[in-house]
Amino acid sequence: MRAAFMYGAGDVRIDTVPDPVIQRPADALVRVVAACICGSDLHPYHSMPVGEASPMGHEFIGIVEEIGGEVSTVERGDLVIAPFAWSDGTCEFCREGLQTSCLHGGFWAAGGIGGGQAEAVRVPLADGTLVKAPVGEDSEFLPHLLTLSDVYGTGYHAAKRANVGPGDKVVVIGDGAVGLLAVLSARQLGAQQIILMGRHKDRTDLGREFGATDVVADRGDEGIAAVRDLTGGHGAHKVLEAVGHMPAYTQATGVVRPGGVISRVGVPQYEEAPVGFGSLFGPNITLTGGPAPVRAYIEELMPAVLDGTVQPGKVFDRTIGLDQVPDGYRAMDRREALKVLIRP
Amino acid sequence: MRAAFMYGAGDVRIDTVPDPVIQRPADALVRVVAACICGSDLHPYHSMPVGEASPMGHEFIGIVEEIGGEVSTVERGDLVIAPFAWSDGTCEFCREGLQTSCLHGGFWAAGGIGGGQAEAVRVPLADGTLVKAPVGEDSEFLPHLLTLSDVYGTGYHAAKRANVGPGDKVVVIGDGAVGLLAVLSARQLGAQQIILMGRHKDRTDLGREFGATDVVADRGDEGIAAVRDLTGGHGAHKVLEAVGHMPAYTQATGVVRPGGVISRVGVPQYEEAPVGFGSLFGPNITLTGGPAPVRAYIEELMPAVLDGTVQPGKVFDRTIGLDQVPDGYRAMDRREALKVLIRP
After folding, report:
1. Quick check: helix, strand or coil at residue A322?
2. How far does the CA of residue B40 sit from the closest CA of chain A (Å)?
3. How far apart, in whole angstroms, are the C-alpha atoms of residue A193 and residue A214?
4. Chain B partners within 8 Å of A244 (Cβ)
5. C or N: which end of chain B has fewer Cβ atoms within 10 Å?
6. Residues of B whose CB is below 8 A from A107
7. Do B284 and A290 touch (CB under 8 A)?
8. What is the mean pLDDT of each successive set of 10 residues along chain A, which is 344 residues long?
9. Among candidate residues B163, B139, B179, B105, the one with its CA nearest the CA of residue B302
10. How far is A98 from chain B (nearest CA, A)?
């Protein structure tokens, strides 16, 4: 089969590799119907040292082609959604809804498991991992369902961890797909005011469609001042940080209200950050977030997708074949595309 | 009157200064009946540069001697508890129970307001700040009520911010007065297991009396391993950090369970700390806490103090007069005393 591999920064190729096969009784084999490129794939695209080639992609939906002897929740022919982490569904963390900390799980494109930017994927712990969607592979809902693999669930995680609720003033930092779906999630959870910080008008326009009440294009001190003006002087109750770079963290501490919450879902590209009296401690700010256990949210979010209440798949503004994946990375890196959908 | 002043690291003196007087209609004048020395007073005791003398003390109870024309909630002769921050009680933050961020409030021993280690204090915004206790100045409950000024409310804040509840496994880092009262608070909130990390047996014994189910004297990797053993391998749901030094933060990230909470009430003696993928983000750890709005908790905690259910004043193991305050600092600094009560 064909699959995407990264060989180093800026170097993505499509290779032909052996077809995956069932290796364990809990495995399922999934033919990929739709996959995509994630904003977080751009981090190695900028910085990966040349070395062993790494499979790519952690978001996909597909058709179950074959199942191992222990698999009971999905069967051949089902259209399934794969969350970006695979998990057993039974350990104490899975039962609490923190599948990204599953005691027996892991991540795609690592440890001998392939990536989603491929024609097929061997799915370990299929019963815990896959969620059947009640549609066929020609469904018009496919792009929307695909966002449940990662970006929608990740935006929702930001809002849930921040405990966004009615009456809240919310700031979303970042106008990438996750930021835009954090806007949508905050609206679903009843936020009163949603200020989207981003500077790409086509994206912030989609953010307004998703529920943003205000857009702030300024950054740094000017951005902080603009948010404070919009929130009556004291900042936002909840800040959803969907970027992962240090300036976004600084922005977050600048726009959050005393007693408020900063919820991060952008993968931090730093390890140390200010948390002392002058930043988090003095004003009793809570810092939360992490890799979203999107598996926990798929059943919760799917109904509004399938009845058309929300259309999270609008974040896809380009569709390509597997052979065009290197172009897809380039387009997202140059911000010519917001999020690229792949039809292998 | 006499009052304690710090002139620099290790240099505390009792000076005679003019008696405080009512300056504004919202002021009250309080004669101090009991005050104390705080673990956080030891931070400047170690590091304060020589310069202008600073008044000291932020925990006191006393008798109202005089009130300004606008004061209506306390009157002359009342025994009152002063929380460690003064606040108006009416701004949006006070109404939300975050009096340490009061828009018009402040802290003792700063900005022209005296400290509690003195014979008398001018209390600004008396209606918002002071809470009347229904006992006289000779009450046996005085030491217990005095803890509502800071240490008990601060330990309680750690537990509340961490949302400690039934079934939780809790670690408390630090066997000072705040740590011990965080133990007591976690027990009141229904924690199933409370592991106290501390190495002073007389203190950890009091911790056991307050509700600690386990004591871990080890620190560093050994301490982390001991906690993991005690919690079934994965660490504690909630970690209450009552020290403020960097090793305590490192300890907290080491003993917290994925998806868990670190709640800090020890004033951080650092500004930057690890918060990235390898510490907080990857395992979805929440970092919370800050200066406790103890004013919000006084009415809630007082009944169990007055009916003898809890005896938080057991943290006081030495009582001195105002003239012995310099000795009191020395005793706490050398850990000869856990917490020193002052009877001016």
Report:
1. helix
2. 13
3. 8
4. none
5. N
6. none
7. yes
8. 97 97 98 96 92 94 98 98 98 97 96 96 98 97 98 98 98 97 98 97 97 97 97 97 96 98 96 97 98 98 98 98 98 96 97
9. B139
10. 7
Rounded Cα distance, B293 and A249, in Å = 26
pLDDT < 50 regions, chain B: none
Note the pTM of the prediction, 2 decimals.
0.97
Q: For the domain covering B2-150+293-343, report its CATH number.
A: 3.90.180.10
CB-based contact A271 B287, cutoff 8 Å: no
| Minimal CA separation from A293 to chain B, in Å | 10
- Confidence (pLDDT) at A176: 96
CATH annotation of A155-289:
3.40.50.720
CATH of span B154-289: 3.40.50.720
Of the candidates B319, B322, B339, B295, the one whose C-alpha atom is nearest the C-alpha of residue B120 is B322
What pLDDT, on the 0 to 100 scale, is given for residue B163? 98
Residues of B in contact with A273 (CB under 8 A): 272-273, 275-276
pLDDT tens for B24-50 read 999 999 999 999 999 989 989 999 999
Contact A272 B271 (CB under 8 A): no
Contact call for residues B280 and A287 (beta carbons, < 8 A): yes
Helix axes A220-230 and A246-255, enclosed angle (nearest 10): 30
Residue-level pLDDT at B12 = 97
Q: How far is CA A282 from the centre of its chain?
A: 32
For the beta carbon of residue B230, count every other beta carbon within 10 angstroms: 18
What residues does CATH 3.90.180.10 cover in chain B? 2-150+293-343
The C-alpha atoms of residue A88 and residue A80 are separated, in whole angstroms, by 16
Residue B51: what pLDDT?
A: 83
Name residue, tokens 């809902």. Answer: A141
Q: Is residue B179 within 8 Å of B207, Cβ to Cβ?
A: yes
Count of Cβ atoms closer than 10 Å to residue A272 Cβ: 14
CA angle A215, A221, A224 (to 5 degrees): 40
Please report residues of B whose CB lies closer than 8 A to that of A288.
284, 286-288
Q: A301 by DSSP, 3-state: which? A: helix
Give the three-class secondary structure for B86: strand
**E strand spans, chain A:** 2-8, 11-16, 28-36, 54-55, 60-67, 79-82, 85-86, 106-107, 120-123, 131-133, 169-173, 193-197, 214-216, 236-241, 256-264, 272-274, 286-289, 318-321, 340-343
What pLDDT does residue B52 have? 86
Residue limits of CATH 3.40.50.720 in chain A:
155-289
